[in-house]
Amino acid sequence: MPFYHDLKDYDSDPIYPNKADWIARRLLTLRYDLAQSITKARRPNSLIIGSWNIRAFDGGMPRLDESFHYIAEIVSTFDICAIQELRDDLGPLKRLMRLLGPNWDYFVTDVGTHEGANYERIGFVYNKDKVFFRNVIGEIVIRSDALSDGGQIARTPFFAAFQSGWFRFTLCASHIIYGDDLDMRAQEITAITKALTKRARKEDQVFVFLGDMNIENRDDEVWKALVDSDMKVPHFEATNMKGDKFYDQIAYTEKGASTRKTRLLRHDVFDWRNAVFGPAQDRDPAAPDDPEFVTRITDAENRAHYAPINAAMRSAYGKTPYADFASQYATNFMTFEMSDHLPIWVELEVDYSDDYLARFLSDT
């Protein structure tokens, strides 16, 4: 679990009354939701891989202290997480790592400064108690005829090799190009999946392709490019705030040289809005009643709480406060504190010892 010792210093914040109390209540609720959605049902010796586009982390006015705690709580639920939209300043990522603790490590790409790269980095954050790095890292470079414009993928896909238990795998994270040209998005996905499946036929490991693939819906050519590849594609629900875009995906190889067939146990999208910032979403009517330590905040309460804090923060950093905070809350304030994407995750089986031992049994 992440560290919480910073909370003891927060009540001296002159613009944020009862800061530690508010954050602690929100963390208790977030931890409960994460347990109900992810950790409570996880299988022993499994691997949970996450992917999250954390909006402009951090490219503008610094996030509130509490946002780092909430992001750390979510990331800590995964064993390894690919993060998109990291920016030039690595200070926010390093703060996240301090909250996660010394058993976590990370590495990132350089900032992309070429056309279409949007000055972004891609990073992997992983729990060393669950995953170890196999000392292979790189980027996918494609042939000049792979894309119709003869160029490279706008935001270069980043890959690294890891192992968890018996499971050897390489993660390849990407942030597919955005814009009106859906065909170019599809071409990038096709080029990446072809590169990964080609390697999978030669190497005894599983390749996992994950990230923000900018898939608008399940009827367009971008989605078709992913599902028509030779990779297994679980179906995730929408990951944008309006709940109508399927931007974020995780796919993996099942065929190839690997003798350890990928076994998907569970997969899902985690919606943090019922615990922090909101607006709260409809909950499963079959879900158990909340325990006493869980508190849900209404949209009106969230807006009333954050309006003066945000105004003071913007003024402190030389920015004009929002003229209408209520209308900017969900589209700007909240998404720059957390994200305009929801994180996704898969749980995979990694203990293949029974299968291995069975190979030595004699037929009777």
Task: Walk me through the structure.
The chain is α+β, with helices and mostly antiparallel strands and 364 residues long. It has one domain (5-277, 333-358): Deoxyribonuclease I, Chain A. It is 29% helix and 23% strand. It contains 8 helices and 12 strands. The protein has helices spanning 19-39, 65-77, 91-100, 182-200, 221-227, 299-316, 325-337, 353-358; strands at residues 46-57, 80-86, 104-108, 121-127, 132-139, 158-164, 167-175, 206-212, 231-232, 248-253, 264-269, 344-349. A 6-stranded mixed beta sheet has the order 3-4-2-1-12-11, covered by helices on one side. Helix 1 (19-39) runs parallel beside helix 2 (65-77) and helix 4 packs parallel to helix 5 (221-227). It is globular, with a radius of gyration of 21 Å. The N and C termini lie far apart (49 Å). The model has no long low-confidence stretch (mean pLDDT 93).
Kindly identify the CATH topology.
Deoxyribonuclease I, Chain A
Reported for the largest beta sheet, the result is:
6 strands, mixed
Unreliable residue runs: none
State the strand order across the main sheet.
Answer: 3-4-2-1-12-11
Strand tally is 12
Structural class of the secondary structure composition? alpha+beta
Please tell me what the overall shape is.
globular
User: What order do the helices and strands follow?
Assistant: HEHEHEEEEEHEHEEEHHEH
Average pLDDT rating: 93
Number of helices: 8
Please write the CATH class name. Alpha Beta
Report the CATH architecture. Answer: 4-Layer Sandwich
Q: How many structural domains can be distinguished in the coordinates?
A: 1
Strand content: 15-25%
Distance N to C terminus: 49 Å
CA-atom Rg in angstroms? 21 Å
